[in-house]
Amino acid sequence: MDEDDRPRPRGDAASKLATEDLGPYSQDELQERIQLLEREIARVEKHRLKAAASRDAADALFGRKD
Length: 66
Prior knowledge:
mainly alpha; about 65% helix; 2 helices; single chain
């Protein structure tokens, strides 16, 4: 089974964050949360691009499996 085809674990951190009640948070806390999430998005995107570049290099070397 290809790594991309494996099922993702349920209840990961992003899923839990998406269901959290935001009502108790102050405006400042919400702004901090947004900034934290934006940094996390940038970190994940950087990793995704690095992984894609590695995959492209491997495909170029060994040929793409379709």
